[in-house]
Design a protein that fits this description.
The protein starts with a strand and ends with a strand. The chain is an all-beta fold. About 5% of the residues lie in helices and about 50% in strands. It has one helix at about 95-100; strands spanning about 1-5, 10, 20-25, 35-40, 45, 55-60, 70-80, 85-90, 105-115, 120-125, 130-140, 145-150.
Length: about 150
């Protein structure tokens, strides 16, 4: 597993054909409702639109990953049929009304090889005072895939 730093671009190795993208968060002393999404080919995949038109990306929801004591949302991605960038983002539900921001949340994203179960990349980032955040991107690169850590 490789730990990503903000603005870093990392190759997904070994080259996966299917991945899980999991966004994890933990409120510091309070319940914070966060909704994550994947933008791909002009559509947004999330808890409302749970499957991309081409069936390559699906919202799985909360799956148990051993050792993670965080709230989680997971997406399953079939990379072998995708040729476009995926953008992963999150927003806090009713953030303004509840006076909440990402500065009050511990957050990270992890990417697992769906076949082997191996965690390929983890990106833990400090929140900011925003209620919407772009976490990162997964994009094709010379016959493989890279992850770009954004966290802002």
């Amino acid at each position: 597993m490789t730990e990503a730093k903000k603005s870093q671009r990392l190759l997904l190795e070994p080259k996966p054909t299917e991945i899980y993208i999991t966004f994890c968060w933990q409120g510091q002393g309070e319940v914070i409702d966060v909704d994550s999404s994947v933008d791909y080919a002009g559509e947004t995949i999330n808890y409302i639109n749970m499957l991309s038109r081409d069936n390559n990306i699906s919202y799985v929801g909360n799956i148990e990953i051993v050792g993670y004591e965080f709230q989680q949302e997971t997406f399953s991605v079939l990379l072998e049929n995708i040729s476009e960038k995926l953008t992963i983002s999150a927003k806090i539900f009713e953030a303004k009304k509840r006076n909440q921001s990402f500065s009050r949340i511990r957050t990270f994203i992890c990417i697992h090889d769906k076949i082997s179960g191996e965690e390929l990349i983890r990106f833990e980032f400090q929140g900011n005072n925003n209620s919407v955040i772009t976490i990162g991107e997964v994009y094709p690169y010379n016959g493989s895939w890279k992850f770009r850590a954004i966290g802002q």
